[in-house]
């Protein structure tokens, strides 16, 4: 019996046209987009399918769009009778994971993601900032750069994606300085990310307190399978623990590399990324080149499952 983990991508993986082939081919996709329209109050499929890309990039729109794409693929996966041992999601994707594991129902999951996107947008406007990916520098060196340039949390390490990719958040001025310093210190690449704020840093405190308040009215349940936390890189199996950690992750670093290593150590031999882009599949290969990950984005990708599970 194969040990399987689901992976759900986060913001940045979206693209115009995502989900269109699923909508055209599967009734479950039509049903989910119809439900989503009544919950969100606008036609999310129109933006997902036709853009424009600038609109789809908006935090408050791309988060529900990615969530829906991933959940549709999850429902199609379930129809094939595959069982799951773990799930993990990168940032926004963690909310998809808790919905897939039935720790919250679909309607609640989408409402949380909608509110999260709105709160992050508001926090980004209150506390302007940005993010950068540093590739090819050791963690200690990136820590030194942030410590040297940033004071009082104005520059933080926020995503530990793979052994050679770390993302930092901070003020736009310090992000620019950190990029130049990283290049001088030998980074293979240091690039500003196309995001609207300093995510996963203390710049997001207004969103953190906002989501705490919002989740007071949301009922969480014990998940049907463990979810590996962004914050702790350990499995969450109880509803109180899940509620606490998915709230805390808004101002905490995403421990993605550690999360993947935990599941590899647990004997997971098949990872299935559900959602647009295939970013997490690429990161996993950088963490362990021998790890097997199937990326499922389009309807045709589902055919690959039969080669593995039959």
Structure, briefly:
The protein is α/β, with parallel strands linked by helices.
Can you walk through the features of this model?
49% of the residues lie in helices and 15% in strands. By secondary structure, the protein is α/β, with parallel strands linked by helices. It folds into 2 domains: 4-125 and 202-309, Malonyl-Coenzyme A Acyl Carrier Protein, domain 2; 129-192, Malonyl-CoA ACP transacylase, ACP-binding (Alpha-Beta Plaits). Strands 2-1-9-10 form a 4-stranded parallel beta sheet. The protein has a 4-stranded antiparallel beta sheet with strand order 4-5-3-6. α2 packs across α7.
Class of secondary structure makeup: alpha/beta
The percent of residues in helical segments reads 40-55%
- Overall radius of gyration: 19 Å
Shape: globular
Read across the widest sheet, the strand sequence of neighbours is 2-1-9-10
- Could you please say which CATH topology of the largest domain applies here? Malonyl-Coenzyme A Acyl Carrier Protein, domain 2
Examine the secondary-structure arrangement and name the CATH architecture of the largest domain: 3-Layer(aba) Sandwich
Topology order in helix (H) and strand (E) letters = EHHHHHEHHEHEEHEHEEHHEHEH
Question: In total, how many beta strands?
Answer: 10
The CATH homologous superfamily of the largest domain corresponds to Malonyl-Coenzyme A Acyl Carrier Protein, domain 2
Task: Give the number of helices.
Answer: 14
For the termini, the CA-CA separation is 11 Å
Unreliable residue stretches = none
């Amino acid at each position: 019996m194969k040990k399987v983990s689901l992976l759900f991508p986060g913001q940045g993986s979206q693209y115009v046209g995502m989900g269109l082939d699923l909508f055209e081919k599967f009734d479950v996709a039509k049903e989910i987009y119809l439900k989503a329209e009544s919950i969100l109050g606008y036609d999310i499929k129109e933006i997902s399918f036709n853009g424009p890309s600038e609109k789809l990039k908006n935090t408050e729109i791309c988060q529900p769009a990615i969530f829906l794409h991933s959940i549709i693929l999850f429902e199609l996966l379930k129809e094939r009778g595959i069982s799951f041992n773990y799930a993990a999601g990168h940032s926004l994707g963690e909310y998809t994971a808790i919905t897939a594991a039935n720790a919250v129902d679909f309607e609640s999951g989408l409402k949380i993601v909608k509110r999260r996107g709105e709160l992050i947008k508001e926090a980004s406007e209150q506390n302007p900032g940005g993010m950068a990916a540093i590739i090819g520098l050791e963690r200690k060196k990136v820590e030194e750069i942030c410590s040297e340039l940033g004071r009082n949390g104005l520059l933080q390490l926020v995503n530990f994606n793979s052994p050679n990719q770390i993302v930092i958040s901070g003020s736009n001025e310090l992000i620019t300085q950190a990029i130049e310093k990283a290049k001088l210190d030998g980074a293979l690449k240091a690039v500003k990310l196309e995001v609207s704020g300093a995510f996963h840093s203390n710049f997001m405190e207004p969103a953190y307190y906002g989501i705490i308040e919002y989740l007071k009215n949301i009922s969480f349940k014990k998940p049907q399978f463990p979810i590996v936390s962004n914050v702790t890189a350990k499995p969450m199996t109880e509803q109180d623990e899940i509620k606490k950690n998915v709230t805390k992750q808004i101002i905490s670093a995403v421990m993605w590399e550690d999360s993947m290593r935990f599941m590899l150590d647990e004997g997971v031999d098949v990872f299935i990324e559900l959602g647009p882009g295939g970013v997490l599949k690429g990161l996993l290969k950088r963490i362990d080149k021998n790890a097997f990950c199937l990326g499922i984005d389009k309807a045709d990708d589902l055919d690959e499952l039969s080669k593995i599970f039959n």
